[in-house]
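Hi again,

Forgot to attach this to my earlier email, sorry! This is the prediction with flavin mononucleotide bound. I've pasted everything inline since the attachment limit keeps bouncing my files.
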Amino acid sequence: MADLKTNYLGLTLKNPLVPSASPLSQDIDTAKQLEDAGASAIVMHSLFEERIEEESRRHDRFFHQQDIGHAEADSFHPTPMEYESYQDRYLEKLQQLKSHLDIPIIASLNGTSSDGWIEYGKAMQQAGADALELNVYFIAADIEMSSQEVEDRYLTLLSELRSHVSLPITMKLSSQFSSPLNFIRRLEQAGANGVSLFNRFYQPDIDLETLHVVPKIHLSTSDETLLRIRWIALLYGHVNLSLAVTGGFHTAEDVVKALLVGADVTHLCSVLLENGPQQLTHIHNKLTDWLDEHEYESVEQLKGSISQQNAINPIAYERTNYIEVLDSYTSTSGVLR
Ligand SMILES: Cc1cc2nc3c(=O)[nH]c(=O)nc-3n(C[C@H](O)[C@H](O)[C@H](O)COP(=O)(O)O)c2cc1C
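Structure tokens for the complex follow:
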């Protein structure tokens, strides 16, 4: 049977199937089910700095009101010493995951300020995380902000955190950069150990009855993998980073494609939310079958063999393919046939 081992962020993982950040890691039993189903590591749901700040504002208001309230009611209120913050709860969950599971636990941080990134990153390291994933959900909505400034923001946050944390750090990125490969190389130079391509952002929608703008979450489909596959294929061999894909990976075939272009791990989220942790076993078994049927001895043997550098037709990952693809539509499909 093929050897599924892979190296990711300096960790030796028993296979490339890693549940990505999601509510599934909030519950220890569910996380345990993921481990039992074959997950080789788990990325925790993110700690959001904005939520810490919001909680701290509420907390300040509450204790301020208590100060000016009725003395006899004071004993009913929690004292600041008894109060368990959102951050404490996150770190406690991380410690519980570490003590109940044998697989590596990757903590995830969504910070907004460099002080926040450093403080929470250090706390995650102290709490026992095996690695850190930085989920930078930044929308460049300011028309005055140039692409250089956007990139510098990431690079500054990363290099400041790097100087305070010795854990492996991976950056979960959006696909919306002018020159993703160049930017990723600069992330490597600033101290990143890996990248995860690409986060899916939840798009605002318009409710036509109320005319309100409403956030919309929908789960992915396998169609979304192709964007990730192209960019990992282009990146592979140009950087010395661990590579993860996230976004649309639902089947063993999706996972095989990610490995062929050079990914070290495939993150799974929507497929597990839809079908439950046991689906991971199904993907695992199908992946093993595929490797055996195609006479691969290991995942390592597969990795990067159809990246742009190694593909028979490397140009297919670039624009040249564009005209051919458009032409193929008129010649093969739809009403134009
Ligand atoms: C309900 C839900 C919660 C999520 N929470 C987080 C999170 O806390 N941090 C994060 O970095 N990504 C989060 N994600 C994004 C996923 O980790 C994943 O990157 C994304 O959904 C794409 O993968 P998929 O197509 O397999 O779902 C979440 C996704 C969903 C659907």
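The chain has twelve helices and twelve strands. The longest strand covers residues 42-48.

That should be everything now.

G.
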